[in-house]
Write a structure and sequence with these properties.
By secondary structure, this protein is an alpha+beta fold. It is 32% helix and 19% strand.
Length: 154
């Protein structure tokens, strides 16, 4: 006597075997990436709202607000400008959204907090030199009117 398996049962068995194979292979750890694929690290851990507010407040005297967290090739190179407030010292000095601020006076601004530290150290009467990278070229801009004393009142 010979037993036969019906078609629906065979399909279910094949599906279960495939699901088990996928599960087992995923439990064996990551596979090495193909040589022609590019993988990006995820951005820094999510930025807390309080951290963003502190950063915005710290860059408010300049009027140029940073992309946070720094992403991709900007990491540890400079502070990418997300927005420039109209009529601000940054706008008057020629800083534009998309610029990468590399240096503020003598301070390298490899991270947005380095920019905040440089802004806080400014004397309101100082003429500030800001080195930006725009369209792959470095430019030195002059920014005046940055007054960090407004931060002390908050």
């Amino acid at each position: 006597m010979r037993q036969t398996v019906s078609a629906p049962v065979a399909v279910i068995v094949v599906a279960l075997v495939a699901a088990i194979a996928v599960f087992v292979s995923s439990r064996q750890g990551p596979h090495p990436p193909p040589a022609d694929e590019v993988f990006f690290l995820p951005p820094e851990p999510p930025v807390e709202e309080a951290e963003l507010l502190a950063l915005r407040r710290g860059t408010a005297p300049l009027g140029a607000f940073a992309v946070m967290p720094p992403l991709g090739p900007d990491r540890f190179r400079g502070t990418r400008v997300a927005m420039v407030a109209p009529g601000s010292p940054a706008a008057k000095g020629g800083i534009e959204p998309g610029d990468l601020i590399l240096q503020f006076n003598d301070t390298v601004t490899a991270h947005p907090y380095a920019l905040v530290a440089a802004i806080v150290a400014v004397n309101p009467d100082t003429v500030n030199e800001v080195v930006v990278e725009r369209a792959g070229k470095e430019e030195t801009l002059t920014v005046t009117g940055v007054d960090p004393s407004s931060l002390k009142d908050r």
